[in-house]
Amino acid sequence: MADIDARLREDVHLLGELLGNTIREQRGAEFLDKIERIRKGAKAGRRGSAEGAEQLSSSVDGLEDDELLPVARAFNQFLNLANIAEQYQLMHRRDDAQPLPFESRVLSELLDRLKAEGHKPETLARQLSKLEIELVLTAHPTEVARRTLIQKYDAIAAQL
Question: Which residues form the active site (predicted)?
Fold first, then answer.
């Protein structure tokens, strides 16, 4: 478990660093420094530091009106990236001694059964290549995400 937590921290750190690089390229180093001061103040404040809470408060108070939305978006993106890393780690926590979950074994079991019934692998492959499957899930209204964002998040998870 500690190994997984360490990998999760590494993934979150990597994604946060990449986000920081992107913010620096898009908005400049000074803007990234403001975000970092807010982040560090919040982290210290959560640990009970009065200085950290003051740093957080003064950093947020010092933002210009046109910086408020980009800062909020930066933190929102970081949380999205952290959630991707967490979901990735949760999917990979499974103990190798456990049987594969249903969704991981259903297709191979179906293909084995079809082959056992006399269907030729070439025919099955040809038929499967013609399938067009699109999974559509509906989210809870508080968790709605555009399909394009979901696809981007999936691509990020695939890179982990």
Answer: 140
Whether the pTM exceeds 0.70: the reply is no
Is 13 a known active-site residue? no
Residue 57 domain-assigned (yes or no): yes
CA distance 144 to 150: 10
What is the per-residue pLDDT for 101? Answer: 67
Sequence-distant (6+) residues with CB within 8 A of 36 are 20
Which domain, by its residues, includes 76? 2-93
Does residue 109 form part of some domain?
no
Q: What does each C-alpha distance from 119 to 100, 106, 114, 124, 126 come to in angstroms?
A: 25, 17, 6, 7, 12
Q: Does 114 fall in a domain?
A: no
